[in-house]
Amino acid sequence: MDLPQCVEEFTRYYQVPQVLVESIHDVEAGWPGAKVGPNKHGDFTLGVMQVNSLWFDEKIGSDLKRYGITPEQVQHDPCTNFAMSIWLLREQYRRTGDWSRAVAQLHAGPRRWKEAIPHAHDVYRRLEQRQ
């Protein structure tokens, strides 16, 4: 899938390296409308960036409902999916100061990020191939 123009706009706005987002997208291999799962935790992953459904859980401090963002939008609309992914990635980086940990947290959430370290390594291997 060619990335939509909105990806460049979002990465510039949120100051996230576009090559990192492209690498995550390559590893996730999602598509518009994708809903994969449930995983061992009962979560699903949604859309082109395979956003974990746990990000809609108010128990982790999610306020996506306040912004009117729904799982269905994230699943079906590529630009909404990328916007949410890029924003979440930036927020996790802001909290941790570490892009690798931010990638792991994007994938598995702030409480289960250690489980996603191998996934973050896959993303960084892909990033090295892209550079």
Describe this structure in words.
By secondary structure, the protein is mainly alpha-helical. It has one domain (5-130): Orthogonal Bundle (Lysozyme). It has helices spanning 5-14, 18-28, 71-76, 78-96, 99-108, 117-130, and strands spanning 35-36, 45-46, 51-52.
Task: Provide a concise account of the structure shown.
The protein is mainly alpha-helical and 131 residues long. It has one domain: Orthogonal Bundle (Lysozyme), CATH 1.10.530.10.
CATH architecture call = Orthogonal Bundle
Strand content: under 5%
- Briefly, what CATH class? Mainly Alpha
- Please report the number of helical segments: 6
Helical residue percent band = 40-55%
How many strand units? 3
CATH topology: Lysozyme
Mean pLDDT over all positions: 90
How does the overall form come out from the CA principal axes?
globular
**Structural class computed from helices and strand pairing:** mainly alpha
